[in-house]
């Protein structure tokens, strides 16, 4: 074939592939257009995960009647004119690619009316070709309706997830813009159900309440005088009390553009260093304002990634602003802070030679070294609220959460068993039948192996029904079914499934609960076993097992020093 320039329709299709990855991309582009048009109200309506219908209604500037067709031409934009403009972008759009790309892969209708024009315009397109144009009345603003997305692109359609998942992505996009533009009233309806409605009163807090709920909002701290030089950092970060197990609660906006940035996520997580339990991630809404010339937004077709000219400076500014906010606004140190500070120096781990570890005759040499030395000798005094063990150590008072301590002990026991002679199994007198949901079943089928390793013997029995013949011994008399269900419900989140099974077993072994009366002897035994663990100060979930009130703290508290 000779070389030739591709025809316009093929070019649009190729561009559409980059710009319109899934229904949420369409919503993102249309919402950005509405924001660029200065809208104060933006309504989004979605059906069938966005494949059947996406409609975005705004009260922005509208498109003048004479430019309506042009808006659908490739590389046609009202937002930049020159190369210099490209270097100083203030609008969200500038490539002039969204509308033609969307029109290339869906049926589109547009109704728009610009300020001062007596009547609006209706335009419809199919496969990128205009099929109808007429005058239509409309108050100032624009409505874009997109139907049958990807109907002519089966490869894309097949790649889409369930309608619920695609709706979820759309809700995420609209939520992000509601966070970035608190002065705009957003509404989102998914299959007729109201999914989001922001007040549009200009308060970030309002948007946070709407998106994350009052419980999270209550713990958000405002970033105070953040930034250095030409970089300004604004927004809110969650106190460590509202940590999450995923990074989905980190939002970054650069000059109000929503971006994904591993660099920024890292900067924020660094700022929380030592304040969050392992595996936990913060909640944060961070606006970075920089001179447009300091940032290149033209590095990604959907503009979701940007490049800073001075990356190090931005990183440092974000980290400092967040850290200062956390330290300045954290509640007055209480006994909890003392407990966090109590983690032993990591030096201990490296200097402790196996010979100083309490030697268990049968312990295989590769078994995790115990760090008895990291816990001082504790003298059990009694029990508080049937949940906490009160103990005296060489330096003051220790309160031990009996349930958390027990979880830590069991967790390490099963992990050790698995590495060593194998997990102790308990056969059930009669095989038990369990039923699972389709979602649980998918998880179960991909994790037979790990479950087996920990002593669960499970086999298919009927439709979404399974036969359990044996369970880990540690769960024998306990709630093994609850442990199994909890595991199957966590799904694929987090990668280390063996760790997850060990945690579930520890959680449900249930021999020691909060609210359970323990004898002095039982408490001593628990503390002794806790001393044997490699990480005595936290439970497998990362919560503390104990709080420490030092002698100095006591003296200070009683005004003796
Ligand atoms: P870009 O946003 O990069 O300019 P688009 O293809 O998204 O490119 O839109 C093309 C043009 O159509 C925009 O530059 C703008 O002038 C006009 N436009 C699109 N959507 C709207 C809207 N909701 N309100 C007003 N004008 C719009
Ligand atoms: Mg645009």
Overall radius of gyration: 30 Å
**Biggest pleated-sheet summary:** 8 strands, mixed
CATH class wording of the largest domain? Alpha Beta
**Number of helices in the DSSP assignment:** 19
Are any ligands bound, and if so which? Answer: adenosine-5'-diphosphate, magnesium ion
Q: CATH H-level name of the largest domain... which superfamily?
A: Histidine kinase-like ATPase, C-terminal domain
Overall 3D form: globular
Number of domains: 3
What percent of the residues sit in helical stretches (DSSP H or I)? Answer: 25-40%
Name the structural class: alpha+beta
Helices and strands in order, then pairings?
Elements: H1 8-19, H2 23-36, E1 41-47, E2 53-58, H3 83-86, H4 98-104, E3 107-113, E4 120-126, E5 129-136, E6 141-147, H5 154-159, H6 163-180, E7 185-190, E8 193-197, H7 204-212, H8 214-217, E9 220-222, E10 226-228, E11 231-238, E12 250-254, E13 257-259, H9 262-271, E14 284-289, E15 295-296, E16 307-308, H10 311-329, H11 335-340, H12 347-351, E17 379-384, E18 388-393, E19 396-401, H13 402-419, E20 425-435, H14 438-446, H15 448-453, E21 457-462, E22 465-472, H16 480-490, H17 497-508, H18 520-532, E23 546-549, H19 551-557
Parallel strand pairs: 1-7, 12-14
Antiparallel strand pairs: 1-2, 2-6, 3-4, 3-6, 4-5, 7-8, 9-11, 10-11, 11-14, 12-13, 15-16, 17-18, 18-19, 19-23, 20-22, 21-22
Bound molecules: adenosine-5'-diphosphate and magnesium ion (MG).
